[in-house]
Design brief:
This protein has a domain of 208 residues. Helices cover 76% and strands 1% of the residues. It has 21 helices and 2 strands. The protein has a two-stranded antiparallel ribbon. Helix 4 packs antiparallel against helix 12 and helix 17 runs parallel beside helix 20. The longest helix is centred in the middle third of the chain and has 32 residues.
């Protein structure tokens, strides 16, 4: 089914987010105490976006003068981003009220950043990727510094802004060189005329710079720099949103540019992706071992997972593409749940170290059990979703002749077991001195439970999602 006369229907996920964002912005401007209204309106808009994403998944083609792809992979990613935003908003409400920073602007920024993510995932033109990236990034800069009375939050916002400025520079210069070499920024034109364009060295330099710009956003080594500092200083629900939706959006753009066809990536670009993948797995996992702050541990873990996902990108085959999308879906639920539990436990930047979780298995057995499941899944232990996510990208690498990269990924996964299980050991095998008061709303509990169900379901029945991904 092609868009044809159904352009409005084809754009339904993006239009739902846009209409909701503008309505929330209007309410914030005219109503003084608008937090509750903005909260419920944001939830309704995101639910509509999720429904619209699944309703348009059967479409194919482009719209808006061939600038936006509709249906297929774009709709799958739109659903992923909207689910991540929905969970973040629900979890953030308790956190913001507890920390005295419950303002309606928070929900507006989440909605606008989700719009940017959807633009990146549905882009049919490099300019749309840039617009989506900037819309998402500007919102993230503000969200990282949302707790403006905290020094760490201000530091987080400044560092993320500088990091984003570097990424933007690389990305724009890369797009300019690609345009100079090809005369177009349309992705389909670049793919169909690959044989002619690829003889230009400027094209390959542009592609390399484009990848570097996106690598900053996924947190790949050596472009990770201040990512752990940003995650530590940002409000905990925001850190979870950055590591799920933000990372998935950047990978969606990488898939659109680098895995659109079966043509070669070029030796230089392919080697660069492989090197970044290997370094991310090694540095992310090894440095995570020495962390005492759980948000920093999950930040380095996020860097390592970026390395695993890049294994599927480096494979440059259909198995790798499907494996990457499956991994991103699984990772969204795993990390959203893990950061969600941290946000429920946190009190004024406290209760974020390993020692603070001593004896949690006895004081809050349900929360400890949920956290353990997320950690097992992040470590890649069956029968959870994380295991199959890694399995598919490693199989893709072996199929592409990159067996050594797959072996490195397996070895680094074994290393990651140490710092994930360390928290489980602390929760169940150490006695805690302090009593952590935890008040959880039903909505927050529902988000955590849904994340658990998704992690288990995707681990036991991975074909339920993989069949949808491979169909489009």
């Amino acid at each position: 089914m092609t868009p044809g006369d159904f352009d409005i229907f084809a754009l339904a996920p993006l239009l739902a987010l846009t209409a909701t964002s503008l309505l929330v912005m209007l309410i914030e401007a005219v109503v003084k105490t608008s937090e509750k209204i903005s909260y419920w309106l944001s939830l309704c808009g995101l639910v509509v976006s999720i429904v619209a994403s699944f309703a348009t998944v059967n479409l194919s083609g482009t719209t808006l003068q061939q600038m936006i792809n509709v249906g297929g992979m774009g709709s799958i990613f739109s659903a992923m981003f909207s689910i991540s935003a929905l969970g973040t908003i629900i979890l953030a409400r308790d956190y913001l009220e507890r920390e005295g920073a419950h303002f309606g602007e928070f929900y507006l920024l989440i909605l606008f950043s989700t719009m940017g993510m959807v633009l990146m995932a549905t882009a049919a033109d490099l300019i749309i990727i840039f617009l989506g990236l900037e819309l998402m990034s500007i919102c993230f800069y503000i969200l990282a510094g949302f707790m403006r009375k905290r020094a760490l939050s201000n530091e987080s916002a400044l560092k993320y802004f500088l990091l984003g400025a570097f990424a933007t520079g690389f990305l724009l210069y890369g797009i300019a060189l690609i345009y100079g070499a090809s005369g177009s920024t349309k992705i389909s034109f670049l793919v169909h005329n690959y044989g002619i364009i690829s003889v230009s060295p400027f094209f390959w330099i542009g592609i390399g710079l484009l990848f570097i710009g996106l690598a900053f956003k996924v947190g790949g080594v050596p472009f990770h720099m201040w990512i752990p500092d940003v995650y530590q200083g940002a409000p905990t629900p925001v850190s979870g949103f950055m590591s799920t939706g933000g990372k998935a959006a950047a990978f969606a753009a990488i898939i659109l540019v680098f895995l659109t066809s079966d043509t070669s990536l070029g030796d230089g670009v392919a080697k660069m992706i492989i090197i970044v993948s290997a370094l991310s797995m090694i540095v992310g996992n090894i440095v995570a071992i020495s962390q005492t702050n759980l948000k920093r541990m999950l930040a380095y873990s996020s860097i390592a997972h970026a390395g695993y996902i890049l294994v599927g990108i480096a494979a440059n085959n259909q198995i790798g593409k499907s494996g990457v999308i499956f991994y991103l879906f699984s990772y969204t639920f795993m990390n959203l749940g893990a950061f969600g539990i941290l946000s429920l436990m946190e009190r004024e930047e406290k209760n974020l170290s390993y020692d603070d979780y001593s004896g949690l298995g006895f004081r809050h057995p349900v929360l400890a059990a949920f956290m353990s499941i997320f950690l097992f899944s992040l470590a890649g232990i069956p029968p959870f979703a994380g295991f199959f996510g890694k399995y598919y990208v490693f199989v893709a690498a072996i199929d592409a002749g990159l067996t050594w990269l797959a072996i490195l990924g397996v070895l680094m996964s074994v290393v990651s077991v140490y710092y994930y299980l360390r928290l489980i050991v602390v929760m169940y095998f150490r006695e805690g001195d302090q009593q952590l008061p935890v008040t959880i709303s039903r909505a927050s509990y529902a988000v955590i439970i849904l994340c658990i169900l998704a992690v288990v379901e995707l681990g036991v029945y991975p074909s339920s999602l993989l069949s949808i991904i491979t169909a489009f």
